[in-house]
């Protein structure tokens, strides 16, 4: 079983790779214009399965799905698993929507897990540089 430290290191390394990934499709304007695939990914953000939620969030970020910002922000603020909250934050940074900045800053202050707070602080700084 992996230790928390190794999981965090893997997440940070993944964040570096994730942040440099080039989007596979053009930016989507809003939920009403999302493809069926993007809509399915948004639905998967609410899955009981952690891996499915994380994979869906990663892909939405890679695809820069603007219409997923609200759902990713909800995941960032409310998911019970800090790893899912971190990946949701990474996806929001990848999408680059200024609306997510306040949520990232609040989560950096209030997340119950120190690792998540540290990651959110770095993500908020990165998003501020982008916008």
Secondary-structure blueprint:
Elements: H1 4-20, H2 36-44, H3 50-62, H4 69-78, H5 82-95, H6 101-110, H7 114-130
Helix pairs in contact: 1-5, 2-3, 3-5, 4-5, 5-7, 6-7
Query: Could you list the spans in which at least 5 consecutive residues all have pLDDT below 50?
Result: 16-29
Q: Report the sheet-strand fraction.
A: under 5%
Order of helices and strands: HHHHHHH
Helix content: 55-70%
In CATH, the architecture is Alpha Horseshoe
Give me the CATH superfamily.
Leucine-rich Repeat Variant
Quaternary state reads: single chain
Secondary structural class: mainly alpha
Averaged pLDDT:
84
- What's the CATH first level? Mainly Alpha
Q: Give the number of domains.
A: 1
The end-to-end distance, rounded to whole angstroms, is: 39 Å
SS field, number of helical segments: 7
Main beta-sheet annotation = none
The radius of gyration over CA amounts to 13 Å
Would you report the number of β strands?
0
Query: Any idea what the shape is?
Result: globular
CATH topology: Leucine-rich Repeat Variant
């Amino acid at each position: 079983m992996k230790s928390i430290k190794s999981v965090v290191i893997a997440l940070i390394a993944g964040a570096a790779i994730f942040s440099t990934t080039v989007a596979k499709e053009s930016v989507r304007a809003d939920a009403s214009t999302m493809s069926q695939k993007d809509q399915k990914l948004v639905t998967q953000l609410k899955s009981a399965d952690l891996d499915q939620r994380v994979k869906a969030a990663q892909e939405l970020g890679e695809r820069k799905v603007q219409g997923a910002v609200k759902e990713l922000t909800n995941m960032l603020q409310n998911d019970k698993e800090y790893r899912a909250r971190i990946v949701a934050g990474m996806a929001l940074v990848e999408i680059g929507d200024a609306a997510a900045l306040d949520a990232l800053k609040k989560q950096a202050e209030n997340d119950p897990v120190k690792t998540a707070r540290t990651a959110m602080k770095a993500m908020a700084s990165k998003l501020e540089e982008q916008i």
